[in-house]
Queue: 2 jobs
Job 1
Amino acid sequence: MSDVAVKQARPKKKSEFLRVLKELTKNKLAIAGICLILLEVLLAILAPVIAPYDPLLMNLSETFQRPNATHLFGTDDVGRDLLSRILYGARYSLSSGFLAMVFGVVMGVIVGSVAGYFGGQFDNIVMRILDIIQALPGMLLLIVLASMLGGGFLNTIIAMGFGAIAGNARMIRAQILKERTSEYIEACQSINCSRFRIIFQHLLPNCISPIIVGASMSIGNYVVLGSSMSFIGLGVQPPTPEWGALLSDARNYIGMFPHMVIFPGLCIAITVLAFNLIGDGLRDAMDPKLKH
């Protein structure tokens, strides 16, 4: 059987990206979420240009200022401008969430794809290891990994991404198990396609939709996790401006100076909401019931 026969045997995915994009543009909430994230990314990129002050510059004569014309978001306990710190903090919070998602998805897809395709004893061993990982409370596992690796931006990303491998691997494995007996896979095997090519060129494109939806919604969770780790001192280390670290700095002054908590907290909440809206929109756009 030739390559032409294999292509004919595969399910048709003509203009799948365009179809999903078209459906997504009909969802006003998803578009709102995309606009919010793009705005945050733009502000983070342009932080050196639009931030009114150096985020690390301390001015003890201007401590605990409430929002005013000079400091729109006020200042903290050592006189640093909160607006500038939030703008720079967006770089760390957004990038840590995105990179942790990429790390967890890539590793999970590789592990789940290989385990689902080969099956047998190898699959059993991989699944039992994943069972052990998932048996541990997520936050406890994250704290243990962060403690072992040490604090810092890169180590926090690795710790968060490692905790997501098991869930992503299970999800893609379930899809692979359903697809691997399809006719187009049998056609690929009949012409001696390599296992690597079958998995990553033929199987994954037909199984990736749930991963895309899950990944888009998980970025918000990673932003919260990264902020939580910084809040307890295991994430991005002071004086680096990160939203969780800003909340940690402000926890002793929440009663008298609530602005120090409100603005970083709002940024985290808006980011999580935006990613959830995008994820919901992608889920609806990729719903198999909408396919013709």
Note: Residues 4-9 have pLDDT under 50 and may be disordered.
Job 2
Amino acid sequence: MNTISLKNASIYQHERCILKNVNFEIEEGEFVYLIGKTGSGKSSLLKTLYADLPAKEGDIMIAGYDLRKIRRRDIPMLRRKIGIVFQDFQLLYDRSVEDNLSFVLDATGWNDKTKISKRIDEVLQQVGLLHKRKVMPHQLSGGEQQRIAVARALLNDPNVILADEPTGNLDPETTNDVMDLLREISTKGKTILMATHNYNLILKYPSRIIKCEDGMVRDSK
């Protein structure tokens, strides 16, 4: 089953076409790298997939949603089915790890405090940071902050995780820890599309590669 499918798609940033004639499919449970130089369109492609940029041409499907036809009011539901991990963590530094995670659950329609607490425990356990539940983000290392960002992406048990340079701000050892975590999550059936320009990472953790280059997308499959 394909969780991501693009057919004859063009990716736009505002009125400018960044990538044209994009064709690829990613199946459930696949781990795929999205590579390319800075400015090659990686982030624009990811932003289109989580409906931050509009899908204007071709067929673009993700997690059962047709992005050409999606209504604005349905975008929050789409994002419940997609976990997003950013390079710069994007945690709220004025509140604890627990409150960062409960904020997301509140915003996506959870209202039972017992279920919220249980789900926070589950995702923190999954990333090995249950003991950091009450800690403030600034008290965490960079690697721990990114693990919390991964936990946040898992909160709504998404079909797909989109990771935009998730190891870009991390040292090599911490990078390996985060990669081990993402690969483990993938083995449990989650589809992961990860943008990176770290070729050492790709050599150490080989997988399928989709490359953005010269306004086109090339698939190693």
Note: Residues 180 and 205 are 9 Å apart (CA to CA).
